Amino acid sequence: MAAFERARLRIPGGVNSPVRAFAAVGGSPPFLVRGEGCRVTDIDGRELVDCVGAYGPLILGHRDPAVVRALREQLDRGTALGGPTEAETELAERITLAMPAVEMVRLVSSGTEAAMSCVRLARAATGRDRILMFDGGYHGHSDALLAQAGSGVATLGIPGSPGVPAAVVQDTLVLPYNDLDRALGVFAREGERIAAVLVEPVAGNMGVVAPRPGFLEGLRRVATAFGTLLVFDEVITGFRVGPGGGQERFGVRPDLTCLGKIIGGGLPIGAYGGRRDLMEQIAPAGPVYQAGTLSGHPLAVAAGLATLARLADPPDPYPRLEALGARLAAGLEAAAGALGVPLTVNRVGSMLTPYFAAAPVTDHATARRSDRDRFAAVHRGWLARGVYWPPSPFEAGFLSLAHGEAAVDQVVDAFATALAGSREPAAEGPETAGAILQPSDP
Ligand code: KE4
User: Fold this and answer.
1) CB-hemisphere CA count at 13 Å for 165?
2) What is the pLDDT of residues 174-214, one digit of tens each?
3) Residue of minimum CA distance from atom 9 in ligand 1
4) Does residue 388 register a pLDDT over 50?
5) Which residues contact 117 (CB under 8 A, 6 or more apart)?
6) pLDDT at residue 438, rounded to an integer
7) Is 55 tagged catalytic?
């Protein structure tokens, strides 16, 4: 508690990204000092099985030896060098090899920059202003994308945060995820005004929500028909749900792709890429401006290359990630079933979310109808029993290649005990109730 109080004196909410403050689950966040494999250790020496994975990057787990070695070797050569490096070219080549729809790529320092730049590029390339995104999707905190679904049938976004001018989101259309009919209707009405459709091929920011069969394919068809660019935000799913991300897993070819997280191996990174005719419009090759002091940072690139190399090395790691994810999901469902508690676990590969809901969770509205108090109570019990799970019902839990069956079973056992103990949601609610963790949060 002392660390959190001290932090809150000098850092808004005591954290450098809202979700870390535990506002959605109550209590104080553990302050961490070390990660090793599938575990993290906090300042009190508590060791926790880590299912946060730094919110997605750590698909190899903490301090993977190859990543540490690559970082050490780069450190011996310097940190930021102030000029292009061949390693950046190698990372771009690895990405384009894994994702054929990505013919060229620009490295940046965050997923926010990647998505923001894709929007600017799409608007420049099409000469249009409207952007279509989906309620509960999150594409970083650039103004145009901090839009919330309007009320009722209104599709024009409303500001998702104070400080976002209505004028900036007036061209941002927000529809329910997985609702292809609504999207087709908007296109019929104003498709020729839409520069881009921006979508997570697997939603990870309303909790995990998989695309309905035909949803992504339908967006591809209608975007092509209206000359709109299809942009896949693969900041989470890139190299997570398969070697070629969601675009390979679902067989839908976007025009532009956003990346981040895994491609930096735990260091700050983002990237956007896609069709060559589009990317060559980016400065200095073309007129669309985007820049970044530390874009393509040698340490992030070194960690990213080591991570992607490991993922590309035989034996194929994705079947193992799939098996670990399935084991965890089945364990959580069995535990809830034994206690007669309605639970829906949405999972794609090694990213998953347990919703305390009896009905399927297929979009933001159904995700928000899940029992969040129950989630908060279980989360507290989970943490007390040695599991570090993302502190929000609208985040994805992640497994890594460093998790073994024993760690997964420990997560399940702790969940079962926490769930049994969560008959009634704990008296104390979230300490900073009402804090905005993410625009899609309640
Ligand atoms: P960053 O700017 O945080 O690197 O990336 C933004 C972003 C873009 N697109 C998607 C699909 C994302 O999930 C994100 C960021 N993800 C959140 C977790 N849901 C980051 C965690 C946080 O905000 O602290």
Assistant:
1) 2
2) 999 999 999 999 999 999 999 999 999 999 999 999 999 99
3) 139
4) yes
5) 106, 108, 272, 282, 290
6) 52
7) no
Q: Is the CB of 204 under 6 A from ligand 1?
A: yes
Cα separation, 285 vs 56, whole angstroms: 32
From the CA of 56, give the closest atom in ligand 1.
18
- Cβ neighbours for 372, distance < 8 A, ≥ 6 positions apart: 24, 356, 393, 442
CB 265 within 8 A of CB 306: yes
318 in active site: no
pLDDT of residue 157: 78
End-to-end, the C-alpha distance of the chain in Å comes to 26
SS3 of residue 300 by DSSP:
helix
Domain 2-63+316-421 CATH (choose: 3.90.1150.10, 3.40.630.30, 3.40.50.720, 3.10.450.50)? 3.90.1150.10
* 353 and 15 Cβ atoms separated by less than 8 Å: no
Q: Where are the domains of the chain?
A: 2-63+316-421, 65-312
Joined together, the tokens standing for residue 23 give 């506002």
Return the CATH number of the domain spanning residue range 65-312.
3.40.640.10
Distance of alpha carbon 32 from alpha carbon 12, whole angstroms: 18
The length of the chain is: 442
Q: Fill in the DSSP letter of residue 177.
A: T
Q: What is the mean pLDDT of the chain?
A: 94
pLDDT digits (tens, 9 = 90+) for 170-185: 999 999 999 999 999 9
Q: What separation in Å is there between the alpha carbon of 140 and the centre of ligand 1?
A: 6
**3-class DSSP assignment, residue 319:** helix
pLDDT value at residue 437: 46
CA distance 441 to 339: 28
- Collapsing DSSP to helix, strand or coil, 203 comes out as strand
